[in-house]
Amino acid sequence: MIQSFLETLQNIFKVPELRKKIGFTFLLLIVYRLGFKIPLPGVDPERLGELAEKMGGSGLGALFKLADLVSGGGFLSFTLFSLGIMPYISAAIIFQLLTKVIPKLEEISKEGATGRQKIEQYTKYATILICLIQGTMVVQHLAGQTRLGLVPNPTIGFHILAVLSLTTGAMFLIWLGKLIDDHGIGNGISIIIMAGIIARLPQSLGEVIEKVRVGELHYTAVVILLAAFVLTVVGVVFIQQGQRRIPVQQAKQTRGRRVYGGQRHFMPLRVNMAGVIPIIFASSLLIFPRMITPMLGRNNPLDQMFQLGGYFHVLFYVALTFFFCFFWNSLIFNPAEMANNMKEYGSFIPGIRPGKKTANYLERIITRITLAGAAFLAFIAVFPEVLFSLAQLGFVFFLGGTSLLIVVGVALDVVQKVESHLLMRHYKGFMGSGSGIRGRRT
User: What distance in Å separates the CA atoms of residue 189 and residue 177, rounded to the nearest whole number?
Assistant: First the structure.
């Protein structure tokens, strides 16, 4: 098995195009991580650690930690890339919803590549606006920490320069993500988030080891953490690779003395078509309640309601995950359009009449598998949080369901793209020759 894996790694570097894509992706990720070493102008970087420790795990501190996870890591460092790509994700959510509500935007989105380019342009404009708002909040909070001496000279010029620096850094990250999409391997935005989470792995492991050393965490709790980690990874792989295979029969056509068609193939419908998108969207939206609670003072009821691992936090997390699973699948899969395409090409599902009956059948199947996928996805996302809360283990972000879903989901997507390049050139993939990563058939 190890020999086969090493042979596959050698095959990757034998394909010039794949080698360039992987090298280009790693180069941009290095640039991405270097941006977290550039502090905001006018901020004392030596005092930032004291601020992170002071904020703790509630109120604005919990908000910054959650934003730190979704943005790809580094939010608490208050560097050039502190905002990450979270503003772009928020803007994308807004315009995905507006596209279904505003008829004019829906018409633009249906104009093909030109329409998508316009929507993308509007999304970037909204991203800049969100960056200015979030950047202003962050800078005002920094300037308000006078006792820590984070900002020696909090003038108006500092506020303007710092907000513009944060906005520029966020837009630069979006540009890096688009470069990875065009010239690298995998989805650029998702890879940037994954890279930020993986970069925090040594810190998370160090926190666990330190808690064990000082006696705050028992060895039994560490075993529970590892078991939750393994179960979450297995669950993510299970749901990401699960698919419902619908048989499709091609109609026979007679031309002269020859008969064409008549073959049977399968339409694979993934249980989780949206991947990690619902988790990223849900996590980003859950940040907004945490932005409001600090304004109401400490120990207010709303702050307690939305504590990480709390009842209301878990409830809203599950509800948003279900919503975005169904919403995203409705955007990328249109049963009526699929049924019309099958009818035009002379294909049909055995036992189902072409046209409206086929569309209803596909819609019923999509609803069922999306329900199962959303339930499994929500369970995996909140299970570690609830486990840590009940066992009073504290919360380790890298071992949380959100982090693992993002890392494993993005890693699987990258491996599948590498597989397709290898198999296209008749090389063995990671799962052996002649086949890529096999989906679980239901």
Answer: 5
Q: How many residues does the chain have?
A: 442
Decide: 5 and 164 in contact? Cβ < 8 Å.
Answer: no
Q: What is 200-442's CATH number?
A: 1.10.3370.10
- Architecture (CATH level 2) of domain 1-188: Orthogonal Bundle (1.10)
State the Cα–Cα distance between residues 228 and 384, nearest whole angstrom.
6
Q: What is the pLDDT of residue 126?
A: 92
Q: Which two tokens stand for residue 409?
A: 């989901």
Residue of 375, 410, 419, 431 lying closest to 239 (CA atoms): 375
Q: What is the Rg, in whole angstroms, of the alpha carbon atoms belonging to the chain?
A: 24
Q: Structural domain boundaries of the chain?
A: 1-188, 200-442
Report the C-alpha gap between 379 and 325 in whole angstroms: 13
Please tell me the pTM assigned to this model.
Answer: 0.73
Of the pLDDT bands very low, low, confident and very high (cuts 50, 70, 90), residue 435 is: very low
- pLDDT tens per residue, range 38-77: 877 777 666 655 555 555 444 444 455 555 555 555 555 6
Helix 219-241 to helix 401-424 angle (10° resolution) is 40
Residues 108-166 have pLDDT tens digits of: 887 878 888 888 899 999 999 988 988 887 787 777 665 666 676 777 887 888 889 88
**Furthest C-alpha separation in the chain:** 90
Q: Which one, of 424, 426, 422, lies nearest residue 8 by Cα?
A: 422
* CATH topology match: 1-188 vs 200-442: yes
Q: What is the DSSP letter of 216?
A: S
State the chain's mean pLDDT as an integer: 76
Q: Which helix (H) or strand (E) holds 322?
A: helix 311-332
Q: Give residues with Cβ within 8 angstroms of 311, minimum separation 6.
A: 305
Six-digit token string for 2: 């190890």
Predicted pLDDT of residue 298 = 59
pLDDT digits (tens, 9 = 90+) for 166-175: 899 889 999 9
